[in-house]
Design goal:
mainly alpha; 0% strand
């Protein structure tokens, strides 16, 4: 909104010309999100604690998790408010890409909130089948907005393969099934990663920081030509949204660092993962998400492998799944698991950025 209110006056007041620069607006979206987190955080924590909206701890987790019972959850509300408001303020809200990204955050945030509310009520949460159905329904309007992005016309249904500049299979109408799987898969993978203080939010910051760079260069004709990646007119605005997510996530980390004062719950992990998938689609870097979000992929795979192998053999591959609990069972301190996962996520981000030139 700030962009639309102030930039039209740039010819009269030349200093307002800065609002046309994506880098300027991304910087201030990040700062705004961080400040909002500091403003909204304490009263939200106090409110959630007063209402007894506390985390329920599984009985099979390591013993040191038990004292965390009752820690305020649904902290995703803080993340969502802190990213949506700056997104509306600093991004071009007339952009279909921006609308798709913000709608993803809101719709999947609502699903996560409903899941958390159900969990607080009965201790189990939403049924998996219902959750998937709601996620599929949420993908429909999001992908409709994506399909209307002018910059994606002619390239939307193509899937670009890292390292190969000429390999870009056209999936046709099946692309929308693929895109839905990307969004839903990313959403649930981030959800599974959220199990230790600060564990999920660290790789989220790294992933969105990486996609901020990718969206910026993909929306810049000169840079995209130099790197030989698809030029997508208008997708640079997604950089502003990524910046807002980074700022909101850093603000949340202030309260979620060990020992956590606030958990994001499904209200945070579900929309953050879905938004990551949507950004990957908008930038036409869906496949590289497997590398950028490698931590989330491994966490999800560990659960799939554990459940599948146990059903076949009645034995376990890991001491406990998701895999972060496996390392805890091996004797790693919670903070060590978190820090090492952050380090790996940074390494994976650097490797993924190298693929932009290695084609």
């Amino acid at each position: 909104m700030t962009y639309h209110l102030l930039y039209p006056w740039h010819e009269t007041y030349h200093f307002l010309n800065v609002f046309k620069y994506i880098t300027f607006r991304t910087t201030y979206a990040t700062i705004t999100a961080l400040l909002l987190s500091f403003i909204f955080g304490p009263p939200l924590i106090e409110y959630l604690a007063k209402k007894n909206f506390g985390e329920r701890i599984r009985t099979d987790v390591p013993e040191h998790h038990r004292p965390k019972a009752g820690t305020p959850t649904m902290g995703g509300l803080l993340i969502l408010a802190s990213l949506v408001i700056p997104g509306l303020m600093w991004a071009d809200v007339a952009s279909y890409s921006v609308m798709a990204a913000l709608l993803t955050a809101v719709l999947f945030g609502a699903i996560g909130l409903l899941d958390d509310a159900t969990k607080l009520k009965d201790g189990h949460g939403m049924r998996a089948r219902l959750k998937i159905i709601l996620q599929i329904l949420a993908c429909v309007p999001v992908l409709y907005l994506v399909s209307n992005e002018e910059g994606l016309r002619g390239t939307l249904t193509h899937v670009y393969i890292p390292f190969f500049k000429l390999v870009k299979p056209d999936l046709g109408p099946f692309y929308f099934v693929f895109a839905g799987l990307v969004i839903i898969g990313a959403s649930n993978a981030v959800n599974l990663t959220d199990g230790l203080d600060g564990l999920a939010i660290g790789p989220v910051i790294v992933a969105f920081g990486t996609y901020a760079f990718i969206s910026y260069v993909a929306g810049h004709a000169h840079f995209s030509s130099y790197l030989q990646i698809p030029f997508i007119k208008g997708v640079g605005e997604v950089t502003v949204i990524c910046g807002a997510v980074v700022g909101a996530s850093l603000g949340f980390l202030w309260y979620n660092a060990y020992p956590a004062q606030l958990f994001m719950g499904n209200t945070g992990s579900v929309p953050l993962g879905a938004l990551l998938g949507t950004v990957a689609i908008l930038t036409k870097h869906e496949v590289i998400l497997l590398l950028i979000g490698g931590i989330f992929v491994v966490e999800a795979l560990s659960v799939i492998i554990q459940v599948g192998y146990f059903k076949l053999t009645r034995k376990r591959v890991f001491l406990m799944a998701p895999i972060h609990h496996h390392f805890e069972k091996l004797g790693w301190a919670e903070t060590k698991v978190t820090t090492r996962f952050w380090i790996v996520s940074v390494l994976l981000a650097l490797l993924s950025l190298s693929t932009l030139k290695l084609r």
